[in-house]
Structures are given as C-alpha cells and as structure tokens.
Amino acid sequence: xxxxxxxxxxxxxxxxxxxxxxxxxxxxxxxxxxxxxxxxxxxxxxxxxxxxxxxxxxxxxxxxxxxxxxxxxxxxxxxxxxxxxxxxxxxxxxxxxxxxxxxxxxxxxxxxxxxxxxxxxxxxxxxxxxxxxxxxxxxxxxxxxxxxxxxxxxxxxxxxxxxxxxxxxxxxxxxxxxxxxxxxxxxxxxxxxxxxxxxxxxxxxxxxxxxxxxxxxxxxxxxxxxxxxxxxxxxxxxxxxxxxxxxxxxxxxxxxxxxxxxxxxxxxxxxxxxxxxxxxxxxxxxxxxxxxxxxxxx
Length: 298
What we know:
Elements: H1 2-22, H2 26-42, H3 45-71, H4 73-91, E1 97-99, E2 111-115, E3 118-123, H5 129-136, H6 140-165, E4 176-179, H7 183-192, H8 194-202, E5 205-208, H9 210-297
Parallel strand pairs: 3-4, 4-5
Antiparallel strand pairs: 1-2, 2-3
Helix pairs in contact: 1-2, 4-9, 5-6, 7-8
Transmembrane segments: 6-22
Keywords: Coiled coil, DNA recombination, Membrane, Transmembrane, Transmembrane helix
Organism: Psychracetigena formicireducens
C-alpha cells in the first residue's frame, strides 16, 4: 500500500515537471525542480520513504506469518482460544465465565458462560483446511469439491458440538456457540451456507464470529444483570412485607395498650386532676376564711 502511494507521488512530481517543460516554461521547471529538491532534502523525504518501505515490508511479513499460522490447525486453535478468552475477559466479570474448565459431568469446552438460561458452552476448534483450499484454488471443479468438503466438515463439527454441549438436563443452555475467529469465514458461511446454519440453529448450535459473539455476550450480561436486579427487588419486597407484618403486630399491641391501659390511665389522670383542683379550691377557701377571721378579731 505504501509503495503505491510513494510511486503515485513520484509520478505526480514528474508529471508537473514535464507539463512545465512542454509549456515552454523551462525556467519555471528548473525553479520547481530546485524547490522540490530543497524540500526533499530539508524534510528528509528520502529517509522517510525508505522507512515507510521497510515498515510496509514488515507488515507484509507479519501478515504472511499470521496467514501461515492460520494454516496450521494447532496454531489456529491456539489463536481461536486466545481471541475467545480476550473477548470474554473484556466484557464479563470473572464469575460469569470459565476457560477450559470441567463442567456438565466431565465435559471441557474451550469456554463457557454462566447465563440465566443455563451454562452456554463455546467451542473454538473449527475445521478450515478445505475452506483454505477453496479460496486458493482457481479451478472450478476443485472449487466445487472443496466447497462440498468444507460444508461436510462444518456440519459434522456442529453436530459434534450439539451432541456434547447441548444438554439442558445436565445444566446447559438449550444452545451452544461454535466460535470462528476469522470474520471472512463466518461471512462465507452466512452468505453461502445459510441453510446449513439455520438447520444447526434448530439443533441448538449457533455459529459466531468475534463481532457477533461480542454482541451476544452483551445481551447475556444484560440478562444476568436484569435477573440480579429482579432478585434484589424480590428481596426488598420480602423485607417490606416482613416489616409490614411487624408493624401490624405493633399496631395491635398499641391499640390494646391504648384502649385498655393508657386510655384508662388518661381518664384516671383527668379524674385525679379534677379532684385535686377541687381539693385545692376548698383548701384555698378554708385558708382565706381563717385569714378573714383573724383579721376581724383584730
């Protein structure tokens, strides 16, 4: 890509020079050539172009290494497991997923997710040899043979996943994921083998790529969070009902206390207050009378 850009820039500069020369403006062409030369030297464009060319070669080399890695089943499997684990670790808390752990009475999937509908198993070992041959060959008959072989590989592999990891009676969800780490392969199956994918969905196996798995994981996480909130709401409701029951008991005790005791105490207190006031008035009257007698004697 960088090589194309560099060549394009060189052709553009050369074209400008030729245009000025053929227009009879040789002096302008010389001036432009000198200016470009000075700019080329000052900006160190030669060194930068060399550096870009080296980087482009490194990128191309890395791409070939990556492509070669995907050709080897073992290396491809490791890459699928690593990318799968990265997606789950980025989007889920550690308590919601597991990597190569023994579950479902001894089964060990590449990964699993704990969801509201059961354990969702994920298998990342996908047969891609015949797909690679299909893409690389140019002969139509061979393409047809590799296409059929790849379809058979996929169908057999998905049936194996269904048999091992779709077992609701043992605690799994009613479906499992077949993870394809390469988007182009997933797109090919979606467009060219959609009938097969639909058929396997009915058997409980969904084919996912890095992009679609990320979307499904978010939905699963949202479902778990919704269930958690629902459970918390039930706990709060239970506590409120318990509090209401306790309040009713307190209310009953208060009513008995008020009607049978406090109300009587209040009534007796009122009667005592009236008697006290009456007694106080009589005492005051007696005292006033004695004082008046003493006063008259004098």
